[in-house]
Amino acid sequence: MTNLSLADLAGYMRQLGEGALITLELFLASFALAFVFGVLIGIVTLSRSRVVQALWRVYASIFMGVPSLLVIFLTFYGGSAMLGALLGEFGARIDISPFGAGVTAFTVVYAAYIAELVRGAIENLPKGQFEGARALAIPPAIMWGKVILPQVMRLALPGLVNVWSFMLKETPLVSLAGLQDLVAAAKIAAGATKEPFIFFVATALVFIAFSAVSFRLASRLETRLDRGQRRQATDRAPSGATA
Amino acid sequence: MNGLPIDVDLAWESLPALFDGLKVTAILTALPLLLGLALAFPICFARMSDRRWLAFLAEAFVTFFRGAPLLILLYLVYYGLGQIEALREGPFWVLFGSPFGCAIVALSLNHAAYMVEVLRGSLLAVPHGIVEASEALGISRRNVFIWVKMPLAIRYGLKAYQNEVVSFIKGTAIVSVVTITDLTAVANSIFEQTYDPFTPILCAAAFYWAFVNVVRIVFDLWGRWLNRHNAEDAAAAAVVPGRGRSLRSASDLKQVTP
Fold this sequence. Notes:
A: about 240 residues, about 0% strand, B: about 260 residues, mainly alpha, MetI-like fold, about 70% helix
């Protein structure tokens, strides 16, 4: 039925594998950067300063209201000019690769979402956590690293999983800026073999499988982050049953 | 380079073309929203059905069309379905033969899969006691659904629906890959003519931003109108899953969805 020989199929599979690796690299790099910047922005924007609040509002509103595809195009086509304006002569000579444009765009866009999550989680923490840390004279760096952020991660995890799976589904957009990723490889293979159906379904299944695996891992991470809460929960259950 | 890298003359000249693009984007938003919602109801009932095979089929539909990136769905419908002989000969070829039809189909299926989860979450959030009370009063199941469950479910699910609609609008930006001249495609073609990387894309971004925020305001007004009899935060208490999967069932942080 299909007009694919086994050797051809093996060749295309290798190409798809290489593309998948690029997609994975792009995704992980973008998510890691977005996470770091998101957490930093989330902490910085807790400041009551009007200027900080206004800047945050504008930033969040813009990047939550504009398609990521446009941000990718903007960084890809306009990146060199922007670097030139920032760094002068030296910056203008840097060529922006599709990969770099994709990572930059996703970082800028998703840092906004992650910052929003982190802000919400910090606001949901009991004030006593901050006051306790201050009363014990714990330095700010250790307070954030050992007291606040672990609890914030626990609260923000469901939202982070949302962002994770949504971002994963947006990574193929970078292929439109010319990145030779999984989707681009699938498109080439589909065009060359005249078997688009198989290749696109296979690509879709790769994405679905990856998000299924990461969802498993997230559930594990959730139980791990919840370990401080577990005793409390079991304590509450019997008392609730007797009441 | 002056402060803002925008060529005002070019922006002014390209306004009519951008408005045309916005019109296409609006149509490509409105039609799949209607079709997807219409499709979501039966699939949601199947998903919640007691018949195992029906629930399984619906779940498979949701997993596939929610888990696959929209770009791949679009490629699949546009390039992949043409391969099927029966479809090429059949009466639906009018639909699948045009880029516009393909985009509508792909977007609707994607939206339907998300809406199944939004609907299901909202319906499950309706307190059981209310349904039981209505049944005890002898109201038929159909009337319970229309007059008791749905009005409450809409209130519970409105925020999730808003998030889904907003991310859907942003998602339509990819239809330019199948040669539809939507807002993004118009911006791209102006870029290709002028090699100005900022003006057309920033203008298109402003149009998207305005569109998304108008939708957001409409949803806010709708939500306020729905809750006009209630205490202020009654509906905000219930939480329903938005785009993407979610772990915990009760956390308001989930409202932050792309």
